[in-house]
Write a structure and sequence with these properties.
Blueprint lengths: L2 E2 L10 H13 L9 H21 L6 E4 L2 H18 L4 E5 L4 H12 L3 E5 L9 H7 L4 E5 L13 H10 L3 E5 L11 H4 L3 E5 L10 E5 L14 H4 L7 H36 L5 E3 L10 E6 L4 H10 L2 E2 L15 H5 L4 H4 L2 E5 L6 H21 L1 H7 L8
Parallel strand pairs: 1-11, 3-4, 3-5, 5-6, 6-7
Antiparallel strand pairs: 2-8, 7-8, 9-10, 10-12
Bound molecules: pyridoxal-5'-phosphate (PLP).
The site of pyridoxal-5'-phosphate has 15 residues, from α3.
Length: about 400
């Protein structure tokens, strides 16, 4: 039995999305910009996918832009808002310390170009404070970018409240909703966002395709010059089969929210309860305001990388943080942002489950992790120091 508990890194494609991808690849090979009927059939599929996604987000199809994924959507939203800001001499951006690197590295690029960036504290619980955000808004604030749910610790941010504050101060607002999609209902009007990013492979769709919602087309500046695709805002022949499969996956996952939410929350809670029985273990991120499928803990005295490898050997796929930071020796910027000291942040484990997991798998994860943590601690010099009192416990 192999247990997949790394759905925040990527999900297995749903059967319906695979079928859609194959059938559209086989039958609709036309270029949607071609005038002949084969091309027009692809154009129709493209239109239908756009309409379907717009409906699911309570948006209109003219506000849906297809991109290559979450990273591109984040880049496009932030750079678009920056362009817009420059025209009004607004060069200040507010974001948080624990955004995805697609956001952080983009605002860092803008900092090098003369923008000023305020990084909001996310506190120990991993949730931004709306009043702190409001106090950070200035006359020259061009954009607020706050993720809907964090990809490492799963904490859910008060997006609708932030939307109201941004509206009141007439500041553009972007949210990276990549981790929220398919788990939480997304209504762009209720959230009050100007831009919202999605990525298909996080909700059962194919990799390499995503969405940028923009409240107003004039708020979008192109990153990729080329043909007139995507309302002239993104050149390049559309990946119609992938886009159509993404629409199918989004519909399916949104329709399943009702039935899977409670079940996944129950498994998550059992997992948290079981793992916290391991001594000197702490949960990362707010207990309540978190995604149904996210568990993230730190075990004192061990290395997350060794833990992952041993879990993998025992048939459990997990992560020590985001896929992008694993492999590097730097501890996760998210765990540092919630105030975990370096030595604790190194011993982190993220398990991201969904409706495909079962209660039996959860019990297996708990027993195997308990066993592996004990084994690693028995070999760890740091743990030995802690046991013998040469070093004080942090957790
Ligand atoms: C995965 C992820 C992204 C990047 O999406 P890609 O489609 O892989 O480029 C951006 N933001 C968050 C929060 C993510 O989890």
């Amino acid at each position: 039995m192999y247990i997949y508990a790394d759905n925040a890194a990527t999900t297995k494609m749903s059967a319906a999305a695979i079928n859609e991808l194959i059938s559209k690849t086989t039958e609709e090979y036309g270029n949607p910009s071609s005038l002949h009927s084969i091309g027009q059939k692809a154009a129709e599929t493209l239109f239908n996918a756009r309409k379907m996604i717009a409906d699911l987000l309570s948006a209109t199809e003219k506000n849906i832009f297809f991109t290559s994924g979450g990273s591109e959507s984040d880049n496009m939203a932030i750079l678009s808002a920056a362009e817009h800001g420059k025209k009004k001499n607004k060069r200040h951006i507010i974001t948080t310390e624990f955004e995805h690197h697609a956001v952080l590295h983009t605002v860092e690029k803008l900092e090098r170009q003369g923008f000023e960036v305020t990084y909001l504290d996310v506190h120990e619980n991993g949730v931004v404070s709306v009043s702190e955000l409001e106090s950070a808004i200035r006359e020259d604030t061009a954009l607020v970018s706050v993720m809907y749910a964090n990809n490492e610790i799963g904490t859910v941010q008060p997006i609708a409240e932030i939307g109201k504050v941004c509206y009141k101060h007439k500041v553009l607002f972007h949210t990276d909703a990549v981790q929220a999609a398919g788990h939480l209902h997304i209504n762009v009007l209720e959230l009050g966002v100007d831009y919202l990013s999605l990525s298909a492979h996080k909700f059962g769709g194919p990799k390499g395709v995503g969405v940028l919602y923009a409240r107003n087309r004039s708020l979008v500046h192109s990153l990729i010059e080329g043909g007139a695709q995507e309302f002239g805002k993104r050149g390049g022949t559309e990946n119609v089969p992938a886009i159509s499969a993404m629409a199918v996956a989004l519909k399916e996952s949104c329709e399943n929210i009702e039935s899977s939410y409670g079940k996944v929350c129950q498994m998550r809670d059992r997992l948290i309860e079981g793992l916290l029985k391991i001594p000197h273990t702490v949960l990362n991120g707010d207990r309540i305001s978190r995604l149904p499928g996210n568990v993230n803990v730190c075990f004192e005295g061990i290395e997350g990388e060794s833990l992952l490898l041993m879990l993998d050997c025992k048939g459990i796929a997990a992560s020590s943080g985001s896929a992008c930071t694993s492999g590097s020796l730097e501890p996760s910027h998210v765990l540092l942002a919630i105030g975990r000291p370096h030595e604790i942040a190194h011993g982190s484990l993220r398990l991201s489950i969904n409706h495909e997991n079962t209660p039996d798998e959860i019990e297996k994860i708990i027993s195997v992790t308990t066993e592996v943590v004990e084994k690693l601690r028995s070999m760890s010099p740091v743990w030995d120091d802690l046991q013998k009192g040469r070093k004080a416990h942090v957790i």
